[in-house]
């Protein structure tokens, strides 16, 4: 029987991927808030990642090819060495077959036809997927350049809250791994049971102080990687957090969406049809729920499924009771 490997440590690459996703999601406001100055190429890279569904988090799929604990120089060097077809295949989370990617480079209509024949693939992101396939070298250079640029800022970043939060994560993780199997720990961090599991030989837990998703996983048959956003307090007081929680749930539609998600997983279009509202409106409601960690997002191929994060919800309710009832 093969021995299971459990790895966890600070990963500069994971931190930068979280930071990319945060900047791509929040835009100029986040750059100003963190006092980050980027050159034009990095701005162009962020502009591209804003158009993608996971806003840069798909870079983490490359962890299955390259060690996430390498330095930025070593990691970007590894990216440059990946054959372009394999790079596209993994960056697209294996949603488009390699032979389709290869054919698309010669004929763009093949990708459109492939998307049209697979209902689970989101047509909204066809343009960015097409760009990844058509201009793979450019996308590679975007990733490598942006990582190197953000690495300079990250090395100068120093915060007591950052260090305390990181140490607390490691302390809690070590304790959990002593009491539970690594798969159970991974599911607790995600806040849900995984429908798709394998006989994993490697478990890798990566904390990121920056990000806009609470938690995301990358996996193949042998390896399960958890990228966990650890700065969920955002330096808010208890009353601030609870006020935000109550405000998010004060909207009737959001409350009904959360009720639906407590029963079964839904994807955006399903929710739009169920509640008879536009897709942008559903996306706004889901973003609001996600901002409080009340929904869980699981990507299956190119579709995001949402479920209620019952662990987070129960914690808010418990905290609210403790705050109000002395």
Strand content: 5-15%
Q: Which structural class best describes the helix and strand composition?
A: alpha/beta
**Termini distance?**
53 Å
Mean pLDDT: 88
What count of domains describes the coordinates? 2
* Number of separate strands: 7
* Helix/strand order: EHHHHHHHHHHHEEEHHEHHEEH
Overall 3D shape: globular
**Gyration radius, rounded:** 20 Å
Number of helices: 16
The poorly predicted ranges are: none
How are the strands ordered across the major sheet? Answer: 1-2-4-3
Helix content: 55-70%
Largest sheet: 4 strands, mixed
Provide an overview of this structure.
This protein is of the alpha/beta class and 326 residues long. The protein contains 16 helices and seven strands. The strands form two sheets. Strands 1-2-4-3 form a four-stranded mixed sheet, sandwiched between helices. Helix 6 (98-106) packs across helix 7 and helix 13 (252-261) packs across helix 15 (279-291). It is globular, with a radius of gyration of 20 Å.
How do the helices and strands line up, and which of them pair or pack?
Blueprint: E1 5-8, H1 12-26, H2 28-34, H3 40-50, H4 72-81, H5 84-91, H6 98-106, H7 109-116, H8 126-134, H9 136-156, H10 160-179, H11 182-190, E2 202-208, E3 215-219, E4 223-229, H12 238-249, H13 252-261, E5 266-267, H14 268-275, H15 279-291, E6 295-300, E7 303-308, H16 310-324
Parallel strand pairs: 1-2, 2-4
Antiparallel strand pairs: 3-4, 5-7, 6-7
Helix pairs in contact: 1-3, 1-9, 3-9, 4-9, 6-7, 12-16, 13-15, 14-15
